[in-house]
Amino acid sequence: MISVREEKIVRLTTSLLGATALCAATSASALDFEVTHWWTSGGEANAVSKIAEAWNATGNTWVDGAIAGGGDTARPIMISRILGGDPMDAFQFNHGRQAEELIEAGLLLDLTDVAEEQGWKEKINPPSLLDACTYEGRIYCAPINIHSWQWMWLSRKAYEDAGLPVPTDWDSFIDSADELRAAGKVPLALGGQPWQATGAFNVMATALAGEDAYLAVNRDKDAEVAGGPDYAKVFEAAAVARDFAMGSNVQDWNQATNMVITGQAGAQIMGDWAQGEFALAGQTAGTDYDCLPGLGEQAVLDAGGDAFFFPVQDDPEVTAAQKQFAAMLLSPEVQVAFNAAKGSLPVRGDVNLESVNECTKKGLDLLAAGNVMPAGTTLLSPDTTQQINDLMTEFWASDSMSAADAQARYAEIIANAD
Hints:
- The chain is of the alpha/beta class.
- It is built from 20 helices and 13 strands.
């Protein structure tokens, strides 16, 4: 983890425009504008093109800075560029604590004036998304979507090929797994990237231990709960799921999703961004695939997602363009076009989403009912998250680590979490 506290950085300075965000945006000259992100799968690239098209329509030019390999690969590269004095104009992180040290070092643009001018506080739902962009009362990022990990995706083809009904909850999935494997299918698709194992575990924790236990561990850093009987059930279930995932033999998350799309695998535990891959493959929710929020056990969303941050620059025209870009991200047109392609939910509750599929409707219903909890990225520091990733990678890769041993190490990490 690159620590900005330990770097000898001379803070970049800028002349903030005296006009409001909209006036600044109107007066900004058109320019090349580099945006770095890690949206490189087919569905993700389709979604990000919607933002690029909207930006190019303003007269500016989108310069794509996609970094393959996911957030774990991309974030250190982005941070290194900022610390090294070669900042991009905008970059995607998950909203939460990932950019905390950059904010503390004064390296990120304050967007409070844009947020106030655009009325973000009144429009963004749930409010926790804007809270995650706020540091000491100032706003430093523009949330673009609501993503939730709390989904299990099921292939109708895989179960039909095996002559089995599609599971409706975690227990029926477990009950069908051996027969599914006997039919030549991988019961649970799981890629090799560390964050995938951690994400799947957290979904199981919410579904099987319950929301209160999940929050006690991740929000309150309660090591007793992490090492107790509720989480023992989760680790035991994860050990079973580990066996069902053997044979995936893929690295990237979208490759695992493709196993579900093609009927090679029965299911995948993955965030709602997987829907972008189903859509790109021409598949329809309720016809080609099914979705279980909370594994069919605990229907709740963990409201995380993506946000854009902006490195401080010493060029007033760039600063104006950054604020223009931030305002554009929250426009109704961009919110609908991007999120429909991404499989995520918009951060604005006042946009028209009549055409969304049945899985997205399930997510919207949960959001409307208030069945929402904060995402892990907003609760744990990057350092703690990395420690958990390392543990989960080791645990899911081989059955040599028992559920009890993994739980003991996990509880120790939580006990020392910041």
